[in-house]
Design goal:
Blueprint (H helix, E strand, L loop, with lengths): L5 E8 L9 H9 E10 L1 H6 L4 H20 L4 E5 L6 H11 L4 E5 L4 H16 L4 E4 L21 H12 L27 E2 L5 E2 L19 E2 L2 E2 L2 H12 L5 H4 L12 H6 L4 H11 L9 H22 L22 H9 L5 H13 L4 H14 L4 H11 L5 H11 L15 H8 L4 H6 L31 H14 L3
Parallel strand pairs: 1-2, 1-4, 2-3, 4-5
Antiparallel strand pairs: 6-7, 8-9
Helix pairs in contact: 4-5, 6-11, 10-11, 11-16, 13-14, 15-16
The protein binds a DNA duplex (11 and 9 nucleotides) through α14 and α19.
Length: 495
DNA sequence: TGTTGTTTTGC
DNA sequence: CAAAACAAC
């Protein structure tokens, strides 16, 4: 007799695609004598959530890597494509019965539709007597567990941070991370069927496809997406690279041509790297404290807490997941929503070099430097007075690191519609930002080669006579006038 | 993690 | 008179 409470278990993988320090995976391995993993693609729901080709490619390629790693431990990984989240409970119920599963494990996800899906799965499996365990893994502390004295979720970052640190500045994060699952005997794979037919006509198979319905995937067959190597080992390598540079993070983080940023977001988002691994690395650099010794490490830990803050907000304020702004009065902003302006912004053809360079970086690489995300978001929502939701959606479609909580939080911050957002009168001047953070125009030259020959001082705001000589558009708007107008519009909301 | 226009400071 | 400080948006 084994002391394991369950004979056969199933690990349901989502955006947690790694072997090490994976809470639910660890619980499955420890809790079950025999187990398999399953991934369910839901392209219809993914599409309605705005997931683009890039984030889906990152997900599927990372999953392929994980399947190899699981295979080396003689653990099967099943794949099935269903249309949407609504199809998942019935399918998992069938899967659990046909595979004779005794327990299901997964790591919790916090957007509203994900929570609803997971509750429905728990209810469906309860009917057939299969317990479901959802683990806290995507955040450092479970959303909902940090509240103000009155029991509400924090709406302001600084008090949230203070409360978080009060609870976590005790070295607990420094403890060892969870080990990878243990290797199974060679006959373990044979204890699980090669494939299963489900009643919905979707087959559960052990082969991960190159693509799913409605999604094209970049870089056919390669272990890269838009030049980014995929998988847990690539994520860990990135974490190690950044660990060597984190002491200087604060000094160079704002300069897009010399970025000393972590570039970990695509890995963090699909789960190739855990948030605890990130925090542990930075805490090790910082004498085990959240604030203090190393300015670089402290500064980056602060960024990790912004991510944490936005994840927690979803649970306390589900209106965020209903396509609504956090501040109700900002629903009355008379957005101009000019279609061709928006298209030019998307294409990097606004005639404002730093904005165009940033948008082209996004379009070409699936990633954008954080400061530039603020600059282009401020430009779209304030100077072009376009609804932040159009920008949010475009970012979701393009980003390799597209995460609903972080992306929505960032956009509502820039648009001044969010909690603890930039005050409406704090509008970035893209030319000032350009001169300050790309002083010699190096970043602009990388992505807007039309302007290569301009002087370091002219490149931020090209002179009038350039437009007849070079195929580059004149500025889409006057930033001084449009700034004034936006501030006026927001000020009028009060009356 | 703002910008701008105005006032004050310091040489 | 340039740089710093400040107020208002």
């Amino acid at each position: 007799m084994s002391d394991k409470p369950f004979r056969r278990g199933l690990m349901w993988l989502r955006n947690d695609l790694r072997m090490h320090d994976n809470t639910a995976l660890y619980r499955t391995d420890r809790g079950c004598q025999s187990w398999a993993a399953v991934f369910i693609a839901c392209p219809q729901t993914w599409d309605s959530h705005g997931d683009g080709d890039n984030v889906v490619a990152m997900r599927l390629r990372s999953l392929q890597k994980l399947q190899q790693a699981l295979g080396q431990k003689n653990i099967p990984l099943y794949f099935v494509e269903l249309p949407g989240f609504g199809d998942v409970p019935a399918a998992l119920s069938q899967i659990a019965q046909k595979l004779q599963i005794d327990a299901l494990y997964a790591n919790a996800e916090y957007p509203l539709n994900e929570q609803r899906r997971d509750r429905a799965v728990r209810d469906a499996l309860k009917i057939i007597g299969v317990p479901v365990e959802y683990c806290s893994d995507r955040t450092l502390t479970p959303p909902g567990s940090l509240t103000t004295n009155s029991g509400d979720g924090f709406k302001v970052f600084t008090p949230f941070k203070r409360a978080f640190i009060a609870r976590h500045d005790n070295g607990a994060e420094g403890s060892a991370s969870l080990p990878a699952p243990r290797k199974k005997s060679a006959d373990h794979l044979a204890q699980w069927p090669e494939w299963l037919a489900l009643e919905s006509k979707h087959n559960l198979v052990r082969k991960i496809p190159e693509t799913v319905t409605g999604y094209g995937v970049a870089d056919g067959g390669e272990a890269k997406v838009l030049g980014w190597p995929v998988g847990e080992s690539a994520g860990q390598a990135q974490l190690q690279d950044f660990a060597a540079k984190i002491a200087d993070y604060h000094r160079w983080r704002d300069f897009p041509a010399h970025p000393n940023t972590s570039r970990l977001s695509p890995y963090l988002n699909c789960g190739a790297v855990s948030i605890r691994q990130c925090a542990q690395m930075a805490l090790a650099e910082n004498g085990g404290r959240w604030q203090g010794a190393s300015e670089g490490a402290s500064s980056w830990l602060n960024e990790l807490l912004w991510r944490e803050f936005y994840q927690h907000l979803l649970v306390h304020y589900p209106r965020i997941c209903r396509n609504q702004s956090f501040k109700p009065e900002t629903e009355r902003v008379p957005w101009s929503n000019n279609t061709s302006d928006f298209q030019r912004w998307c294409d990097g053809q606004t005639g404002v070099p730093i904005v165009d360079a940033a948008m082209r970086q996004l379009n070409q690489t699936g990633w954008m430097h954080n400061r530039l995300r603020m600059v282009v978001a401020s430009f779209l929502t304030k100077n072009l007075l376009t609804d932040w939701r159009k920008g949010e959606h475009y970012f979701m479609r393009q980003l390799l690191d597209a995460d609903f909580a972080a992306n929505n939080g960032g956009w509502q911050w820039a648009a001044s519609t969010g909690t603890d957002a930039a005050p409406y009168f704090r509008v970035f001047n893209p030319y000032s930002q350009s001169r300050r953070f790309d002083p010699d125009g190096e970043f602009i030259r990388t992505f807007v080669p039309e302007l290569t020959d301009l002087s370091d001082s002219d490149i931020h705001c090209p002179p009038q006579d350039l437009f007849s000589q070079v195929d580059y558009p004149p500025p889409i708007c006057d930033v001084t006038e449009s700034r004034k107008h936006a501030i006026e519009v927001f000020a009028n909301l009060k009356s």
